[in-house]
Design a protein that fits this description.
five-stranded parallel sheet; Cobalamin-bd_sf; 27 helices; methylmalonyl-CoA mutase activity; globular; alpha/beta; about 675 residues; 3 domains; Cobalamin-bd
């Protein structure tokens, strides 16, 4: 708005500046069942939330029904289970979708969930032209960081392309993809990597849509206008704010020069944000509140780079599942900034800053150079398949962890200023977080069986057969998917039909190519641990100690497991790491076949209570019960005690940030299990 108009409005309003419209305010939510999540959404909307952000559980995200073996312990844990049309109806009961902006964090199965959402909206009488919201639908970052991919890169890109072309024609106000650099930062990406990898993904998607021939050239600007981004805002305020300005400049350049989009509005960089959950600490968790506020300011203070939607994590997410009160606190943080401060009354307050301009220019130049390297490799999909992107992220993350361990990067309450008063917020930790009733899974499975028993099986079979025929050909898959939704097909059935045609994909782990991140010279902690590993191997008569790092269940957050694997390798272990999404049976089979000295399990989804005892029991059945098992993840204290009582040798949580120290403790557990004397080796 021109300053003269603002002055006139100020005079009419008693001298106060008129405020810009605030961003969409969301909280990322969903758990247990569709009914429980529906109640949560309606309560959040009543508290002033202006958009919904749906968290789906891991079986839904990875295309499994709740009764599949891999879904055990995962149902309703990190989100809401949606297995069919009935679940989606209950999820949005009494929420008018024609007037609701809904973000759905879903990628491999995005087409399926959008089809269910569209059918429910139709049943409510909503015109598809009115539907507003976003499906994340960025499969590249799943291969790199979050692990909920299903299909190989080429068919995955086809699913994305078909969704985009369908929505442009039939749901024109919907954002069919939310290119997501959020999890790249959590996997270790630098700002340059975050920008370059996200923009390279956008290029791959837009090239695929353009080359598909499904959108007339004159409407390609409509495609560009519906591409949105979802980013991470870390605690380095100046760098994060400059990163967003760099994102906008590169997007404007790419869409103008590569795709010839002349309309400035269609080239606008549209993004939502969740601030960094990786930086939230289990130690002194009250400090997370100021971290969240500072990170939010990085994406709201600058008008020219302001987020279109914001969702904030809760202060206690490093401890477990936030309660509704914790989510309300995060929503109120946004509301105080937008409504009580004068933030929205001014033009961009950083315009003309030489410091900001220099930083933005540097980020743009370095990001474009990295994008050019990826282009030379054949594009982002080729860079995924070759393992280049994953190895770069694992390396960056290892370097960051090394800086934290050395104290070069300081985290208040973790590696400095650790002395603390008793925390009243966590005095009773069992009530400071929300827990999901273990019996919930059985109820969800029973409801699924009831749904299957009551549907028209002939129509289900016919719709799945049509989906397979379309997948085997070249037609758009969205129409066949919508028919599957109407017919009563389940999430697992839709996914397995496409698995039969496309196959499945196991992404590169990036562990083998990661360079040594910490020094191992005499006098260093890693050197001491290497000595301990070597001497223990010699005492056991083994060439090398062998550690199996396992990811049971559907939790795809593999960053911690990868860092343990890399550091154990650097300490002299032979590491067995087969990636994510393994059953307890597969993990035990590998442990026995490789004759390992220790099994390390990593679980962040909350399924540890079901999966870890299963692994322990199977090891005993195989006559390998003497192998020590250690567990890492977001594990409440009471659960940790239960795991140790069940036979787990050690439990590590986010407060155990020293990876070299963890490896040393693993050696201690190996020695204890093999009745060797404790071994002290000085650095």
């Amino acid at each position: 708005m021109p300053e003269a108009e603002r002055a006139a409005e100020r005079e009419a309003d008693g001298g106060r500046r008129p405020k810009d419209r605030p961003w969409l305010m969301r909280t990322y939510a969903g758990h247990s069942t569709a009914e429980a999540s529906n109640e949560l959404y309606r309560n959040n909307l009543a508290k002033g939330q202006t958009g919904l952000s749906v968290a789906f559980d891991l079986p839904t995200q990875t295309g499994y029904d709740p009764d599949h073996v891999l879904a055990r312990g995962e149902v309703g844990r990190v989100g809401v289970p949606v297995s069919h049309l009935g679940d989606m109806r209950r999820l949005f009961q009494d929420i008018p979708l024609a007037r609701t902006n809904t973000s759905m964090t879903i990628n491999a199965t995005a087409m399926w969930l959008l089809a269910l959402y569209q059918v429910v909206a139709e049943e409510q009488g909503a015109d598809s032209d009115l539907l507003q919201g976003t499906t994340q639908n960025d499969i590249v970052k799943e291969y790199l960081s979050r692990g909920t991919h299903v299909f190989p890169p080429v068919p995955s890109l086809r699913l994305t392309t078909d969704m985009i072309t369908y929505t442009v024609a039939h749901i024109p106000r919907w954002n069919p993809i939310n290119i997501c650099s959020y999890h790249l930062q959590e996997a270790g990406a630098t700002p340059v990597q975050e920008i370059a990898y996200a923009m390279s993904t956008a290029v791959a998607v837009l090239d695929a849509v353009r080359d598909s021939g499904q959108v007339p050239a004159e409407r390609f600007g409509d495609v560009v206008a519906r591409i949105s981004f979802f980013v991470n805002a870390g605690v380095r305020f100046v760098e994060e704010m400059c990163k967003m300005r760099a994102f906008g400049r590169i997007w404007d350049q790419v869409t103008r020069e590569r795709y010839g989009v002349s309309d400035e509005k269609q080239r606008r960089f549209r993004y939502g944000v969740q601030v960094n959950s990786l930086g939230l600490t289990e130690a002194q968790p009250e400090n997370n509140v100021q971290r969240i506020v500072l990170e939010m300011l990085g994406v709201t203070l600058s008008k020219d780079a302001r987020a279109r939607a914001v969702q904030l994590p809760a202060w206690n997410e490093a401890l477990g599942l936030p309660r509704p009160w914790d989510q309300q606190w995060s929503l109120r943080i946004q509301q105080v900034l937008a409504l009580e401060s004068d933030l929205l009354e001014y033009e961009d307050i950083f315009a003309g800053s030489h410091v900001v301009e220099a930083k933005v220019t540097s980020l743009v130049e370095d990001s474009l150079a990295e994008m050019a390297r990826i282009e030379e490799m054949g594009g982002v999909m080729a860079a995924v398949e070759s393992g280049y992107l994953k190895s770069r992220l694992v390396s960056s993350h290892a370097e960051r962890r090394a800086r934290i361990e050395s104290g070069e990067e300081r985290i208040v309450g973790v590696n400095c200023f650790e002395a603390t008063e008793p925390n009243p917020l966590t005095a009773d930790l069992d009530t400071a977080i929300m827990t999901v009733d273990p019996a919930n899974e059985a109820r969800v499975v029973a409801a699924l069986h009831e749904w299957r028993a009551g549907r028209d099986e002939v129509r289900v079979s016919e719709s799945l057969a049509a989906l397979k025929r379309t997948a085997a050909g070249t037609g758009n898959l969205m129409a066949a998917t919508v028919e599957c939704a109407r017919a009563g097909v389940t999430t697992g059935e839709w996914s397995w039909a496409l698995r039969d045609v496309f196959g499945e994909f196991r992404a590169p782990t990036g562990v083998g190519g990661a360079p040594v991140a910490v020094a191992a010279e005499a006098g260093t902690p890693l050197h001491a641990v290497r000595e301990k590993v070597s001497r223990t191997a010699a005492e056991l008569g083994a060439g090398r100690l062998r550690l199996l790092v396992g990811k049971p269940g559907l939790d795809g957050h593999s960053n911690g497991a990868e860092q343990i694997a890399v550091r154990a390798r650097d300490a002299g272990f032979e590491v067995v790491y087969q990636g994510i999404r393994l059953t307890p049976e597969q993990i035990v089979s590998a442990a026995v076949a490789e004759d390992v000295h220790c099994v390390g399990l990593s679980i962040l989804s909350g399924s540890h209570a079901a999966l870890v005892p299963d692994v322990l029991g199977r090891l005993r059945e195989e006559g390998a019960g003497e192998i020590p098992v250690v567990v890492g993840g977001i594990i409440p204290g009471a659960d940790a005690e239960a795991l140790r009582a069940a036979g787990v040798a050690a439990v590590f949580t986010p407060k155990d940030f020293g990876i070299t120290e963890i490896i040393g403790r693993i050696v201690d557990e190996i020695r204890h299990a093999n009745k060797l004397e404790p071994l002290e080796v000085s650095a």
